[in-house]
Amino acid sequence: MSKSTVVFALCMVAxxxxxxxxxxxxxxxxxxxxxxxxxxxxxx
Length: 44
Prior knowledge:
Keywords: Signal. By secondary structure, the chain is mostly helical. The chain has one helix at 3-19.
């Protein structure tokens, strides 16, 4: 293959990659971890 064919092929690959559909990244917030209530002996 000639150099121009290789360059053209690389340009086409780059063009297709640039035009590919991009998916958005979704971030999900995790609920905050809370400590369990501790028995204090207040209500007997």
